[in-house]
Each structure stands twice: as structure tokens, then as C-alpha cells.
Amino acid sequence: MIIKIAMLVLFFGVMIGVGLYCRKNATDVNGFVLGGRSVGPWLTAFAYGTSYFSAVIFVGYAGQFGWKFGLASTWIGLGNAFIGSLLAWVILGRRTRIMTRHLESKTMPEFFGTRFNSPMLKIISSIIVFIFLIPYTASLYNGLSRLFGMAFELDYTVCIVVMAILTGIYVIAGGYMATAVNDFIQGLVMLVGIVAVIGAVLASQGGFIEAYHSLANVTDASVSEMPGVFASFFGPDPFSLLCVVILTSLGTWGLPQMVQKFYAIKNEEAIRKGTIISTAFALIVAGGCYFLGGFGRLYDIDVKAVGFDAIIPAMIEKLSPFLIAVVVILVLSASMSTLSSLVLASSSTLTLDLIKGTIMKKMDEKKQVLIMRVFIVVFIVISAVIAIVQYKSNVTFIAQLMGVSWGALAGAFLAPFILSMYWKGVTKLAVLVNFIFGAGLLTANMLVRPSFPAVLQSPINCGAFAMLAGLIIVPVVSLITPKMNKDQVSAMFTCFAKPEAKPENRDL
């Protein structure tokens, strides 16, 4: 227990110290929201990866999909690495950085408003962000209860409050730069932690070969009659596996807190390096998490009684106290890094896109930063309260809202954002239609799920469908709706023809 507490105190001390150190970079809006657009490849790549993979992935998804698909769940991690990281950086990294600088947009809603000369699109997209990021934020606390209960015998409410306060301190103090530096440190913890845990778990099962043979002998008639299905290449349900890969991989291309990382990176050289670093990080962390979860059926767990969140804790509860402490800090790192990214995205969107120029016509830099800091506190408090209410009363509506958040955000934003970076012909109405379709479809899925076709009753399948459908809806609607002014759009796209400035001094 002394080892566990000492490691936690050290971890929290470093996080807060970084936040206080980075205060000098958070004195204006550009510095607070984007780190002055001068963040290097290592910090950006780790910020992207740690925002991507939270405790939801490690405790929830790894356990759940590892149980359902067996070792085939590793495909999810590979999809996250090559689609969610590599292709996202290659296709979006450079263009997002260049055009958002050219349009002077600091958030995704502000980009839509400026790109299509439409305050309405900015307001609607900011409302969608506000509605669906808050429950997504609350879901980050899931999974911590069992781990902290196992390691420290602490009440879940205490875990939530401590995590929320400490995250709030360093984000409020140092803004984006504090978040990026802490993400780098937390990312290192995640890399070391997942490798150590996989090694220890496999060793407890007699090594990889022995564990693989044991898994090949596991049968579940309710899932499949095929022997060895949980050790097979595509698992018992390839279609559902594909939908999970699409949602969790392609979805990052349309999430505001993920895309915003490209706004802040300093130059094209940093993008090239960041692409490699981010992909390697995702391969180890995401691939490792889902690979580990694939062995969940080797443990005696009554999933119907205790739920999927109990699988990963059950796999590690007999490890050494030191390794358990490493896992707790790993999950804390994953949760705090994503939480900081989400509350910063939420507060900046609400301040810059809804309040500034709409409710308050004149806001100087200091007032904007102050209001963002206030909203960070508000969002952290709201998300913590939602998480506690959900845990104490098991309100199914909240749980459902958390489940559709990712699909709704990506379904609404993915197609308009990608296509508007590459195609001059995207129209204002096409973007609006897709906003309504993506957010509306997932909301309807939550409220009237039984009326949906069987294949779309799963929020995961429905979210994947919304994203792919958007790639058809936006071009089709753009072809039949009024076009934007050609000269204005052409002027926006001139930014891609300008030569890149020489890289500044090379740093993190």
C-alpha cells in the first residue's frame, strides 16, 4: 500500500507541477487553446494518442470486445493505429494545420463558421459539441471504480472527485501546453504499463503459446459452435468486429478534441515526425489493450453478473502490488489525459463560438481566457456529477447518452470536415443536413432503438453507419444545392499553394 500511495503522490505532484510551470504559455487565447500553435511532434503525437485512448478503452472496450471476439479484437487496435492514427495524420494533418491558420480558426465550430461564411453553422456545431462531449467526458470515469476498489479500497466517489480536481488544476493553470506536456508524461506511463501488464498476464498463464492453446479450447455455444473460435483470425462475429473498427478508428477524424491537435502543431516537419510517433504509440497502446482483452475468457468471470468492466481488473488483481500500482496509474493517465482534452475543447467551443460575438459582443483576450477557465471548472463538475449519479443510481438514460456520444459527434462532423478540406464544392446546406442527420440519427437510436433495423440497434453499428453515410450525403446534397462564391472559396484554398516556412528550432 505504501508503494501504491507513493507512486500516486509522485504522479499527481508531477501533473500539478507541469500545470504551474506552463502558466506562462496560457496568458492569451491562442496560447491557452492551442499552445501558441508551436507544439512539436512528440508532444502533439502523444497528446493525440492519449486523448484517443482513455480508461474506456483499457477497462471497458478491451474487456468487452476481447470477451466477444477473442484474440480477433486485436484488429480493433490495429485499425486504431493505421486508420485512426496513420491515415488521420496523413490525410488531415497538414491541411488542417494550414487552413485553420489561414482562416484563423481555433475550434472546429469556428472553422465551419468561417469556411462556409455561416454563423449559423458555427452555433449549431458548437451546440452539438456541447451536448455530446459532456456525457462522453463523464464516461471517462468508468472503470476507475473497480481498479481503485481493488487496489486501495476507496469509494468510487472519492476517486472521481480527486481525479476531477487534479485534472482541473493543471488544465486551468497551463491550458493546452500543460495538457500536451502532461499527455507526454502520461503517454510514457501508458506505454511502459501496457507492455509490463501484458507480459505479467501471459506469464501467469504459462506464456503466450500456453495461453493461446488454452483460449483455443474455450467454447461458448451461445456465441458460436465453431471450436477455437476465440483464438481464430476474425473471431465469432466478423461483421460486428468490422463495425467496431470503423467507429473507433475512422471516428477520430471527426472528433473536435482530436482534430484540434493538428491546429496546434508547429510545422510540416513536425507533422511528418508526429505521424510516425503517433502510429507507433497507437500500435503499442491500442494493439496491446485489445490483445490483452482477448485472453479474458481464460479467467473465471460471470460477465452477466458483474459486467464487462470487471474483466480487466480480474485479469490483473493477482499481479504484484507494484504492477497493480502501475496499472492504476496507467488508467489514471489514460483518463486524465482524455478528460483534459475534452474539457479544454468544450470550454473553448462554448466561449469562442457561442458566447463571444453572440451573447457578449465585446470580449478582450483576458476575459476570454478567464471565461474558458470558469467553464473548465463547470464542465469538470458536471461530468463528475453525471458519473456519480450514473454509478449510484444506474440511470440507464445517462449510460445510453454516453454510448452514442462518439457516434453522434463523428457522424455529424467527419464528412463535412474532411471534404471541406479537399473539395471546393461542399455547400453550406450539405454541411447543415449532415449535422442534423448524424446527431439526429444517434439521438433517435438512443430514444427509439427497438424501431431501428436489427443491424442498427447497436449504437456502435449505428455510429459507423452515420459516418459512412455522411461521405455520401455531403457530396450528393452539395451537387443539388446553391454553391458558395467561387472567388471566396478559391481564396481560402490558396493557402495550400504557399511554400512552408523553414522549420524552427527542433524541440518536443
Lay out the secondary structure.
Blueprint: H1 2-21, H2 29-34, H3 41-52, H4 55-69, H5 74-103, H6 108-115, H7 119-139, H8 144-152, H9 156-204, H10 208-216, H11 238-250, H12 256-264, H13 268-293, H14 303-306, H15 311-316, H16 321-355, H17 365-393, H18 396-422, H19 428-447, H20 459-480, H21 486-493
Helix pairs in contact: 1-9, 1-16, 3-9, 3-12, 3-13, 3-16, 4-13, 4-16, 5-11, 5-12, 5-13, 6-7, 7-16, 7-17, 7-18, 7-19, 8-9, 8-16, 9-13, 9-16, 9-17, 11-20, 12-16, 16-17, 18-19, 18-20, 19-20
Describe the structure using short key phrases.
single chain; 508 residues; mainly alpha; Sodium/glucose cotransporter; 21 helices; disordered C terminus
Write up this protein.
With 508 residues, the protein is mostly helical. The chain has 21 helices and no strands. The two termini are 35 Å apart. The relative contact order is 0.18.
Order of helices and strands: HHHHHHHHHHHHHHHHHHHHH
Amino-to-carboxy terminus distance: 35 Å
The helix tally amounts to 21
The global form is globular
Give the tally of structural domains: 1
What value does the average pLDDT take? 85
Judged by helices, strands and strand pairing, the structural class is mainly alpha
Concise overview:
By secondary structure, the chain is mainly alpha-helical. The protein has helices at residues 2-21, 29-34, 41-52, 55-69, 74-103, 108-115, 119-139, 144-152, 156-204, 208-216, 238-250, 256-264, 268-293, 303-306, 311-316, 321-355, 365-393, 396-422, 428-447, 459-480, 486-493. 74% of the residues lie in helices and 0% in strands.
